[in-house]
Give the backbone structure.
Amino acid sequence: MTSKPGLAGGIPERRVRPIWDAVDSRQFKTALKLSTALLAKHPNSPYAIALKALILERTGRLDEALSVCLEAKELLHSSNLNMVQMDDLTLSTLQIVFQRLDRLDLATQCYEHACRKFPNNLELLMGLFNCYVREYSFVKQQQTAIKLYKIVAEERFLLWAICSIQLQVLCSSGGEKLLSLAEALLKKHIASHSLHEPEAVVMYISILEQQAKYEDALDILSGNLGSLIGIEVDRLRLQGRLLARACNYTAAAEIYQKVLQARPDDWGSFLNYLGCLLGTDFSWSTSGSSQLCSSDNVVFQGCKSTNLPLEVFDSRIESALSFVQKLQMEVHDGLARCPYLASIEIERQCRLRGKTDAKLLEALLNYFQRFGHLSCFASDLECFSSTLTQIERAEILGRFIEISESSKLSPLKKLGQAITIFKLDEVFGFLTVLPVEAFHLVLFLIFLVLLDIPPELVETSTKMVDVYCKNLVLSSDLDPQENMHGEELLQMASSALVMLYWRTRCYGYLLEALLVLEFGLNIRKYVWQYKLSLVHLYSYVNALPLAYEWYGTLDTKNILLETVSHHIMPQLFVSPLWSETSALLKDYLKFMDDYLREAADLTFLAYRHRNYSKVIEFVQFKERLEHSNQYLAARIEYWILQLKQETNTLEEAECILEKLYRGMQLLELSSDEKLNSLTFNEDLQLRPWWSPSSHVNYLSEPFDGVSACSRENLVPIAGDIGLPRFQASGLAILQYGHCRLFLTDNYRLWMESLAKYPARNRGSTSILDSLFQVQLGTRGRQEQLVGEYKHQACENGNIVRNVLARKSLVPRLIYLSIQSATTSLKETVEPNASEKDANSNGELRFLLEKYARSIGLSFDDAVKLIFEISKGQRSFKDFGTDMVVDCMNFAVFLNAWNLCSNHPLLLHQDGVNLISWNVVENLVNTCIAEQLICARRVLDGPGSNLPILVQLITEPFTWHALVIKSCLRSMLPLGKKKKKSGLSDHLNLRHLSLVSNSIDCLSNGIQKVHKWLEDQMNGSEDSRLDILLSEVKVMQSVTGPGSVLRILEECASSSHEELGERIYGALQLWSSTDVIRKLVNSQASLLLKFQDICGAKLKMLEVMKRSF
Amino acid sequence: MTTIRRFCCEDLLRFAPVNFDHLTETFNMSFYMSYLARWPDYFHVAEAPGNRIMGYIMGKVEGQGESWHGHVTAVTVACEYRRQQLAKKLMHLLEDISDKIDKAYFVDLFVRASNMPAIKMYEKLGYVVYRRVLRYYSGEEDGLDMRKALSRDVEKKSMIPLKRPITPDELEYD
């Protein structure tokens, strides 16, 4: 990009080339040598200087690089350089270095200066435009693009300006008036030059659509410009969308018909077609960039019923039916499901309109006959599950079974149908109500009789495993890369076993749930669904190292770090696995930081390649990721982890705090504004039903069909509010776009029973009514419900925000606490220090108030609470488990504040002595005692309070130790005993004893935990192994834990060579004992890690004790 | 049941069930976004009811003269939606765009020499092994360069297999 051929920044290119070659081959020493030689010849060449800076930056000499860059910048500004020396090559080289040094502003200044000097230079102006793209300065981008356009009236520059306007409207608070400016600019250009790029047309239409000028947009689309859109179907979809937005539903429906004729399997277009035909309320995506890739335009699948008069409705349904039948006739490949699912959707619409004939069932049966063997059959039908009554569901299932049994299909297809039926059991919620043996509730019995449901859940799970084992032979010839037939069965069996565990609390079922998956992975190691379930199951049974290992095999990287690391990250944060946590956090943060750094360059790439809709999309996406709640959480947790790890000496902790600008950095990151714009990008669909979000675990609650689905549990998880659909996996999930809401299917069954048996209808709540209304599809109630869910989504967001706000305070609180402890015991007061100290103390108080608010208390109430707990008047048990750690933190920081407050709280009766030290000590004693009393053996099953203990010791106890260290440093400034005056001697002695008691108290507390951990690991590995094995290897003739394992063992022992070398070999190697042994070892390694941490803390406290 | 449409950034947040497949690579962001920025018509996603991602195809168009061609960089289908010929549909779409919009001579792709199921599928779709690229995958496994001629290559010259294998540094494009 030199301005003159043969010259680079005014220097002959042949002199520069070797330097670039050396840089490219990473021979920086050579490069530097050559660059020095070049500089000797051209001492005043900004390009030569910029090259030197580039090499310095690559070798990590960042400060030098910056100062050399600044030298070049100075030169560019000061002297009368000619255009050759101020070319784009020089500036872009400087730009690269400035960008790597995180000084985009300086690069922009260079370009701004150059453009002032040579205002008509296109290259320089494009460079400047690029600078503004990097800085996301949309207004300046627009101005620069307009300048470019004025110099040469090229379409691309105009579109650069249009994009910049769009970005102002969509991403910042740019006024809507800008849109009419954009339209005017485009119109003028079209009049003289027309448009030549398809994406330019898309942008033009988007500008019109955003102003609701649908007719104009449609004119453009059907004119010459519209023909620029190369993919016909894309053009038609856009047309349909515009017509629908213009409320011209009839024409829109015709257009969607055309789409369907070209793509008969296009389900999205079918829904749009039907929606238009029936005049359903639409909610269209209005994002400017999404016209060619908006996912589903129709929300809630047209569930909102239509207001058409009945006879019009009937005739439209008729025409839809005949269109769909025509499609069915025309499609011959036997694979297009859309025309057949369409029949079901049409019947569903009729039902919403109050028609209850049997056609819906007919359509469903037809669909099963054709596609029942497909893996996606059940998920296709999920959307319709809510339309059916429980009686109908049972009937349908029965009919499906009949069809399957009587059909003469290949064994493969039969297996597929069998799997589908099992899946529907789950989707329809039968697994939640199947009685566990001898667990027959009256209501369930009534249902069983009524619905003729297969008798036992245990049987269901064994049957699934049995079908899997018996059909292994079908997969004997498959390539190991290919999915085996029936793989889903093990996943479903495992899920049913978890349900059994939830309902019976027999640990054996949970162990079987993971054995089943291990068995499957032993046969084929690639099944990620099994791995993901194992991550959760192992986490839950205190074998986090094993969970982490399985997580590792998923090869989660790049964008998956953002969407799926929630499967393991929250568990790691509260675990002693520091190196694993650190590795994961580093990976994730590196990914996000790298992406955010390069995002603007990619946006510019879209500009250059004239894909304008992508420009908008990229900027919006960058904003979304930048505001990710996980990104913020990771940044906070990363530093908290550093503080946890590096607290052996006060200096280490202070060093970390310095890097965080004394803790201020995190406070800025979690300002109210930032917290209010958080995004939720986690893909929660893949989480197990029993833990739909990282802070919900149904298994930790008692199984109770009704209370498990109480109002509180209807918690939306995250994300935008769209409209609901049903999904089920034991629990039915109401989904609003990305936001999932949960209610068990029992609940629905129960509601139906209430309807059937009004006498039982006692205590029905309004939410129950609401849900019942959803069942019936009543529009008004649905809308009300949507409102409630939105409210709950908000509440959930608030929970996340509160946690982040609270955690982000911690480093600053630690910093101020250390300061406070130091100040309180200083022997000499520095001049001006007291005002600074008072400010620090004031800030500490302010932050404590914030901390208290984040746990839902006022400052005074929080003080009162910890005081009462310390007095034994209240217990931690009265609050949620998280409160233990939060209260401890509050008490620790409150004590530090108290030390140097002018108006201390928690004074002794004498009015002089602070009792906040005692309060902390009492709390330490109480919480450890309470936690250890209720702590169950890790080996005995899930539900250990290990995470709480880990948090207590590694967080509040550690912060308290830092406060003590700070006191000690002030009292013993040189680490030696000094002679002191009477007054300070007295002060010191009083404090020394307080501090000494506190050290003893921490030490005792940690010692107890240490001892508890030791007791956990008592006994040999084999004895622990035997305990767990006895849970699953119960030799009973009746069903119960162990029956599934028996099938697995039988399958392994009776394997034969017909299964193929691979499967046969794997079965030979199977050993359930090995799996359980690994589990036991993993638990031990987790305990050991924690014990090591406790040991290190005890050692540290011992050293502190010895220092005085 | 397939709504095929252009891939967009937000799909990256929902494609985990597809990308967890052990043979599907999750690239870094600049890779995906460069494709989106440069060849948005070659990057399509298929959606099932409930907006679930069934699979996607990403590719590009490049080359000079008679080697101007479409290239399939990745095509993948979630296990729930396999055995329904979705990959075929996606491939046809890319071939169609290469053929009709960009007037390319052929479409090519690389596949691991050990991935027999994929090789068989491409053969069914009309691709032939044009040449073997030695140690193409991480310097370990060989890759097969498979090609299918488009209407512009009337004599199907682009598909005549090379006799000897080549090394990755002999490749014209990366």
